Amino acid sequence: MSEVAPPPIQRRAIALVSGGLDSMLAVKVMQEQGVHVEGVNFFTGFCVEGHTHAIRKKDQDKDKRNNALWVAETLGIQLHIVDISEEYKDVVLNPKHGYGANLNPCLDCKIFMVNQATLMLNKARELAGEKGFDFIVTGEVVGQRPKSQRKETMPIISRESGADDRLLRPLSARNLPPTLPEREGWVDRERLHGFSGRNRKPQMALAKQFGLEEYAQPAGGCCFLTDESYSRKLTDLWTARNERRYELDDIMLLKVGRHIRPAPHYKLIISREEGENRFLEGYRYQFTSLTTASCPGPLALVDGTLENEEQRHQAAAIVARYSKGRGDDQVVVEMREPGGVARELTVTPAHPDDIPLAWNVG
Amino acid sequence: MAEQQLDARRLLCPMPVIKTQNRVRELERGDILTVTCTDPGALNDIPAWCRINGHEVLETRESGHDVLITLRVGEARSAL
Q1: Which terminus of chain B has a smaller tally of CB atoms within 10 A, N or C?
Q2: Domain boundaries, chain B
Q3: Is any Cβ of chain B less than 8 angstroms from the Cβ of A47?
């Protein structure tokens, strides 16, 4: 009887899938080496993905697909979407490694996400043995991102996430010390890549080589915390409340409308178009709201309290300023309490000069 | 075989997908689940999630401002 070598065990990896090109390529590189890959995608509450497009009418023509799901389907992998929005607050509020250019805690974020994947990996290994997973894959590239993807941060992420040398970055592995999957021969290091820096041409070439002609815009644009205007609105929220905290509704509302703060204790969130109008509609049972009754106009939510008649008129006049009746002498504005009780206020629309630039938080 | 409903109204994507995923985890193969959403993006995302994870979409329809997706749970294939 001739000796037949037992078939090699198919190794299994959990990949962090953002929906961007890098993680897509990282998965593909693993698949090319025969690794079984399943994706995880984390919902932090700050994801630009999908829903802002669903809100804004001007974006409705764009494809509303969720890119992470699209990547998974294109590559033929399963995808698990995990809601980490509650636990993620601590990452945003207390990042051990600090923020990037805006309120983006990129390094802590990456550590947190890889740690979540590590916990999933450990649990699956405990429950499923061989049907569990062997290592974790990310699309990280040395030198790609100023805050988190640097040569010095790569070992920090591996160590502090608890993934240690079970964390493999297929696009940049050749610039880094060999990890467990490479040392054990589960993957061939020679067939991994040595990408580095912000130049994305190597990724685009690799995508072409794989026949991937369509992919989402390169990484970085997927989180609102990297956005200057969004970060300003979040800072304003914390300043106004005298404490650094937020709820999921708060951070959703920061993605929508024009935010004007005439006084520390109240802010108006004014819709800019129909889609935002519809979105804010859903919050009218939680907030006092203002709409113009005598002409078409926006819907505005009052975040905070209007303490007296003067402030109620001030708020109504600002809302009227953004209505079709902005040139009229008088506009009727309906003010509705969360409980449904409504009253009408007749106001002269605010003049642009009455709304100082400093009130505009974004 | 159970037939169940899931209310995912007023949630924005990807939350309807996440809610669907978490509910499907508790169901058995062959069970039927109807998810009601208000985010029209769910019409793309939930069927995509089903295709990826081996569940069958039986019907998608719109009713007023709601979109409804009915699916049949497939075999659990993942240890995650």
Answers
A1: N
A2: 3-72
A3: yes
Taking the Cβ of residue B74 and every Cβ of chain A, the question of whether any pair is shorter than 8 Å is answered with no
Chain B residue with minimum CA distance to A74? B52
Q: Classify domain B3-72 at the CATH superfamily level.
A: TusA-like domain (3.30.110.40)
- B50: annotated active-site residue: no
Q: Edge to edge, what strands does the sheet with A331-336 contain?
A: A258-263, A266-270, A299-304, A288-292, A331-336, A342-347
Listed residue (B65, B34, B24, B35) closest to A54, CA to CA: B65
Q: Which residue has the tokens 């062959």?
A: B30
Other beta carbons less than 10 A from residue B10's beta carbon: 13
Closest by CA position to A28, among listed A39, A44, A42: A39
**Structure token digits, residue A119:** 């916990």
Per-residue pLDDT of chain B (80 residues; tens, 9 = 90+): 789 999 999 888 899 999 999 999 999 999 999 999 988 889 999 999 999 999 999 999 999 989 999 999 999 878 88
State whether residue A134 sits within 8 Å of chain B by CB: no
Express each pLDDT in A247-295 by its tens digit: 999 999 998 899 999 999 999 999 998 888 988 998 999 999 999 999 9
The pTM for the full model equals 0.90
Q: What is the set of domains in chain A, with CATH numbers? A: 12-224 (3.40.50.620), 256-359 (no CATH)
Nearest to A78 among B15, B38, B78 (CB): B78
- Closest CB from A54, A77, A78 relative to B39: A54
Q: How many CA atoms lie within 13 A of A177 on its CB side?
A: 8
Helix axes A85-93, A106-128, angle to 10 degrees: 140
Residue of B9, B11, B12, B37 to mutate, interface with A, max A Cβ within 10 Å: B12
**B79 interaction partners in chain A (CB closer than 8 Å):** 124, 127-128, 131-133
